[in-house]
Amino acid sequence: MKTIEERVAEDAKLGTEAAARLMAAGVTISRPETCVIDAEVEIAADTVIEPFVQLLGRTRIGGKCLIRSFTVIENCALGDNVLVRQSCVLTDSTVADGAKIGPFSHLRPESEIGEDAHVGNFVETKKMKLGKGAKASHLTYLGDADVGEGSNIGAGVITCNYDGVNKHRTQIGKMAFVGSDSTLVAPVSVGDGAFIGAGSCITKDVPAGSLALSRSPQVTKEGWAEAKRTRQKKRE
């Protein structure tokens, strides 16, 4: 049985050989000694791999991509002109041409990111499809969901896919707009071109082209803050 040190040395040797093979084929790898690259990884020419990247399993990366530092990609297929920003984790997923991922994005298994789509910072996906040109830019969880072309998913949106026993799917059509801090309680569908008001909890299907709101009315009491400060001063 090999020691830990022997296994580490063997992995380092294989990684160095993989990096050398890829660079000879036109891939730019900055500081290859800092990267972990498995033997089965394939990368097309003119792609740039920054330091401290891990490319694992049967990962396939197209041409003219940029994979930035501290990213881990395992068993994924990336198209051409893909940008993966710093500190992303991608597993068993596909990313189409021109898509942008990260920074700090987590693509869990069976995520399919469409052409020119954007998965932004602190966005987590799982078993979902993000259509061409669609965006989920900030602080969002999209699990067991289909998002149509050109749709915009606001900051803090959550697809509530698990009821404690079973998983359920959320369907979002093309060119839909889901406002920030909304929750979509699956199973539920949002039609093409529909709008979801920010802060809504959606539990019923939303027809195409409509607006759905689920929000308590705002109450504003003018002068309340100054009156409170006056009362506090009197107590002192």
Number of domains: 2
CATH homologous superfamily descriptor of the largest domain: Hexapeptide repeat proteins
Largest sheet: 14 strands, parallel
Overall outline: elongated
CATH class of the largest domain: Mainly Beta
CATH architecture of the largest domain: 3 Solenoid
CATH topology assignment of the largest domain: UDP N-Acetylglucosamine Acyltransferase, domain 1
Contiguous uncertain segments of 5+ residues: none
> Radius of gyration, Cα only, in angstroms?
23 Å
Number of helical segments with 4 or more residues: 2
- Please tell me the overall pLDDT: 94
Helix-strand pattern:
HEEEEEEEEEEEEEEEEEEEEEEEEEEEEH
Oligomer: single chain
Fraction of helical residues? 10-25%
Which structural class should the secondary elements be placed in?
Answer: alpha/beta
Beta-strand percent range: 25-35%
Please give the alpha-carbon distance between the first and last residues: 76 Å
Number of beta strands: 28
Please describe what this structure looks like.
It is built from two helices and 28 strands. 37% of the residues are buried. It is α/β, with parallel strands linked by helices. It has two domains: 1-122, Hexapeptide repeat proteins (UDP N-Acetylglucosamine Acyltransferase, domain 1, 3 Solenoid); 135-236, Hexapeptide repeat proteins (UDP N-Acetylglucosamine Acyltransferase, domain 1, 3 Solenoid). Strands 2, 3, 5, 6, 8, 9, 11, 12, 14, 15, 17, 19, 22 and 25 form a 14-stranded parallel β-sheet that branches.
